């Protein structure tokens, strides 16, 4: 589910559900949240490098499980779940380097709002599929993406639910570097190790100084997004999207 390895003060976290393109079910949300919390407290870890195993970085929330959550009131949620993972990302005090090795949807794209350095394979693609699922943005993306890429690029990414290529992601500033697939992890690791050679206390102080002014905006955006998501999830458009996914057909939002 999640591979963890340490080398030269860099902790590499590898999402490991390749059969599901590393889609997040409740168990993976819990595992990654726990891993970030542990890395934050470990004095031997200076930097976290996050990537995925297989063809995908992350296909976002597992839609089959999302369908169960939306339709089964007895479904047992995780200890952290999606909100707890975002809490861990918001609070993570050390540099976070993300290497997008394949497709990134939903949280597989919006997590870049919390990356201190983001690398992307030239063959990878990103998508924020919220409107195609009949729901609202997540993970403070409605606040972080406009700051990261500008209002119009953020509007296109969040409103259209269209794919964004690696070249487009780099041009708009969503990722820092684009690499050939075989070069992605070595290049991301090389930069992570440069950071990891610095004093941890100094890395933490720099990141705190950069992120502290954003905290109020992140908190307010999450509150707005969560309210909108709760209102829309399980509604007609969302159920049509989830049923269409489960049935292997295109969703029909005519009249919605």
The chain-level mean pLDDT equals 95
- By CATH, the superfamily comes out as 2-enoyl-CoA Hydratase, Chain A, domain 1
Shape: globular
The total count of helices amounts to: 11
Helix content: 40-55%
What percentage of the residues does DSSP assign to strands (E)?
15-25%
Strand neighbour order, sheet with most strands: 1-2-3-5-7-10
Structural class: alpha/beta
The total of beta strands comes to 10
Pfam family, one: ECH_1
Keywords: Isomerase, Peroxisome
Organism: Nocardioides marmotae
GO molecular function: delta(3)-delta(2)-enoyl-CoA isomerase activity
Structure notes:
The protein has 256 residues and is an alpha/beta fold. The protein is globular. Strand 2 (10-15), helix 1 (26-41) and strand 3 form a beta-alpha-beta unit. 48% of the residues lie in helices and 16% in strands. The protein has helices at 26-41, 63-71, 81-91, 107-110, 141-149, 151-160, 166-172, 181-196, 200-211, 215-232, 236-247, and strands spanning 2-7, 10-15, 47-52, 56-58, 96-100, 103-105, 117-121, 125-127, 164-165, 177-179. The N and C termini lie far apart (37 Å). Its main location: other.
